[in-house]
Each structure stands twice: as C-alpha cells, then as structure tokens.
C-alpha cells in the first residue's frame, strides 16, 4: 500500500506530517506580490541606479543587487520582503540572498512591467 506522505522510520511506520511553510514562496506571480506589499510587506528594487531613475514603485527601497549584503540592514526583519528588478532574474538572486540572511523574501516574477500590469504604481 502506498501512502501519499513519507513514512516515519520505526515499527509503527506512521505518516510524517508536513509542516506548513511560514516563509514567503521563493517566486511569486505579480498579482499576489502587489497584494502582499499592500498588506505590509517591504518592496526592494535591486535594479541599477539608472533603471531606478527611469521609474520605480513609490514604496520600494532601492538597493542595487551588488549592494544587497550591506543594504539589507535597511530592511525590517519582522515582515515579508518582495524583491523586484526589470525582468525577475536579478530579483530571484536577491531574494535567495536575503533568505540566506534570515529574511522572509520572495522574488516578483516578471519585473517592474508585470508590477505595473498588475496595478502596482510606478513613479517616474
């Protein structure tokens, strides 16, 4: 008989319970990310300075990816962090790095263009 959950070792071979994750998903579609930010998550933009100046979310904190190690000190640790960039590639690296530093971080899939299409504001 196959059980949907892995079995614990031992004579009873009872199913292991999977714990609910309390951290942000590593990658989120943009719509849920906009809602997460509206509910109080921090938004970090890891694009370079020229990209930031061309347009950014008003509530975003600008920390270029190369400066994330030191810039992480500016972020609150008591709430989730959504990381954005131009397309979603750098934000994945940034979110992964922030998770290694103990943050509850997720990457916004699709970048700032997806953010705008999902109803997120952009200041130019």
Average predicted confidence as pLDDT: 83
- Reading the helices and strands in chain order gives EHEHEHEHEH
Could you give the distance between the termini? 60 Å
The coarse silhouette is: globular
Please tell me how large the radius of gyration is.
18 Å
> Helical stretch count?
5
DSSP helix fraction: 25-40%
What structural class do helix, strand and pairing data support? alpha/beta
Give the neighbour order of strands across the main sheet: 1-5-4-2-3
Q: How many strands in all?
A: 5
Low-pLDDT windows of residues? 1-23
What is the percentage of strand-forming residues?
5-15%
The major sheet is characterized as:
5 strands, parallel
Question: Which helices and strands, and how do they pair?
Answer:
Elements (H helix, E strand, L loop, with lengths): L26 E2 L1 H9 L3 E4 L3 H6 L6 E2 L5 H4 L9 E4 L4 H12 L4 E4 L2 H7 L7
Parallel strand pairs: 1-5, 2-3, 2-4, 4-5
Which descriptors would you attach to this protein?
disordered N terminus; 5-stranded parallel β-sheet; 124 residues; 5 helices; 31% helix; single chain
Polypeptide structure, described:
The protein is of the alpha/beta class. Helix content is 31%, strand content 13%. The chain contains 5 helices and 5 strands. It has helices spanning 30-38, 49-54, 68-71, 89-100, 111-117; strands spanning 27-28, 42-45, 61-62, 81-84, 105-108. A 5-stranded parallel beta sheet has the order 1-5-4-2-3. Strand 2 (42-45), helix 2 (49-54) and strand 3 form a beta-alpha-beta unit. The termini are far apart. 33% of the residues are buried. Residues 1-23 have low confidence and may be disordered.
